[in-house]
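ok so heres the complex, four chains, lmk if somethin looks off
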Amino acid sequence: MDLGKRKQLILQAIVEDYIATAEPVGSRNIAKNHDLGLSAATIRNEMADLEEMGYLDKPHTSAGRVPSQLGYRFYVDSLMRRYSATVEEIENLNSALHQRYVNLSSVVSVVSDIISKITKCPTVMTLPTVASAKVVNVKMLMIEENLALIVVVLDGGSVRNKKVKVSGKITYREIDAISDFLNSQLAGLGAKDIDESRIMLIYGAMGQYKDFLKVVLDFVLECLQNNITEVYVGGASNILNHPEFCDIDRARDFLRFIDNRENATKVLALTTGGDSDVKIIIGDEAGLEEMRDTSIVLANYHAGGILSGKIGVIGPTRMDYARIVSSLETINAQLETILTAVFYNEE
Amino acid sequence: MDLGKRKQLILQAIVEDYIATAEPVGSRNIAKNHDLGLSAATIRNEMADLEEMGYLDKPHTSAGRVPSQLGYRFYVDSLMRRYSATVEEIENLNSALHQRYVNLSSVVSVVSDIISKITKCPTVMTLPTVASAKVVNVKMLMIEENLALIVVVLDGGSVRNKKVKVSGKITYREIDAISDFLNSQLAGLGAKDIDESRIMLIYGAMGQYKDFLKVVLDFVLECLQNNITEVYVGGASNILNHPEFCDIDRARDFLRFIDNRENATKVLALTTGGDSDVKIIIGDEAGLEEMRDTSIVLANYHAGGILSGKIGVIGPTRMDYARIVSSLETINAQLETILTAVFYNEE
DNA sequence: TGTTAGCACTCACCTCGCCCGAGTGCTAAC
DNA sequence: GTTAGCACTCGGGCGAGGTGAGTGCTAACA
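and the predicted structre for the whole thing:
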């Protein structure tokens, strides 16, 4: 069942030609364009074998061959040549990335747009989440009669706030005291540390504000367990660049699918382990009906050991895997710097 | 140059039939489907007149007529019958709108998705902005050695924050003092009120922190003049529902256009005065090359007298104006309640 | 004078048949 | 095992012919 060297070379040639031209590739063209030292007829025989083994498909009798899902899988796992971005490409990328970012959301939306531009494919990207967050600072202040603002600062630097109605009367002075006390109790703690006994201790010390404190504590916990995996979809219309989506119905099905936040999230949830590795999911490996004819190149990004998120590039199964993997790796390297800078200085 | 009653009826019939069927409409069909008491031949004569006057176009000799941009304009201004949403429609809408919103962004993204679903058209929508904001509260706190957090609360309730590096040493106690002083100086003021003399006064009192104060003041002013008109685009793929976009190139051009944040902003910037009125922009009235064959129904939304924003529904010039105007009005009425609730209780 | 019936004409669109070319599979020779 | 040759397949492009919806014009009618 394992492929001989020659079959591998031929499969590689077919996959690469097909990725480049989007046309079924025939034996004659391979003989001509690749220096395999074989005649078209020989290649034809090998192709017939490869088809029988499931690595190639035939759209119809008199067309050339097309890689099957299995063919792509083998190519990606064993045959794909790493593509190294040229100096020029890297410089273009860097200059596109070099701009003023207002906050993390803007980094994500700008970066996903850039990726989709260079890959000519739709890109999905999550906002970075903070791993195992801890409270750095909790502060409450009255901003109106009966309306308090809770500000929670987490390590890694994200800041969240929430307005809370205060039912009883709490004075400005009181809220300062509560705020300082709560801060002394919570600073440095993670979600796990804020357990029943800790909460009881807080209630015990400031029983008269229990209702209010409960709201605050709930919010703090929410911030710590925060899994807002908000998803951005960049350049969805790029899917129309690919000839496999020139059929309007197919294009619509795909766009409808990816426009939906939940679906975009599902796509990004496809990473298993693999950690910082780039993962490639081909066709129905995704287990999503609507992605049957598309592939996804997924990568995790990290920054400062605290932030992490996911990027996915979606294209037809015929997408240029080598180039897209390379683009994602190049971006990932830059992203660490950008995110760290934005995260610590601004937001 | 003004149209007689009969010509108006015929124009109306043509526009409505064309909106419903997307096919050029012929004299015979009008005679049959509309009870005008006229023969096809008479209608034909009137149609020839209407064409000469510029209200109708003819795709080719042997097709029916199609409304021209002028025709749509006249229809929208003078002939369009108000469509009243049915009780069922309103109930469906309300139940779709009835959900838990995390914050204003989520309202905007959910609502724009709902609108695009019921109108079957792409929808663009701005985040609400606060009119003539005033400072309610300014607070600074040290969250790390050399890192301060500025929190600005504006009336209407929006809260923004920014982290600032502090170069010199500022103690926790000092920052409290600066914070209280600045708050006493700025509370209740709008952008106009924070003028040169006010700033000088602040610097005068706290000269040793001038560098730091400058950063804070700049940020406060930025918040007050805040024009973050962030734009959401909902249901862009809906454009593919319309037969005029079954051509893949046209679809791509449009999607590429609207996927771009700047362009979406341009579209929403088309409102002139008109205030709470719904405004309809037809074809090249927008002055945007890419919108030559599309129309936009624009509406302003308001909440609590403080928040306001814009919604736009984009479709082919053949879009169902009456229905879309009605949908927008119905949504607008609900939006006031939702936004007010979300704004004052959460975020 | 306005309205209508009749008729010739136009033109997009569909279908059918045709040919072309790229590609295959098989066979026989090297 | 490799290769040349050849018959066969089949999608795609092209042009001819038919169809039908719609128009414009003319002449008759109220």
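quick notes: Chain A has a mean pLDDT of 88. thats all i got rn
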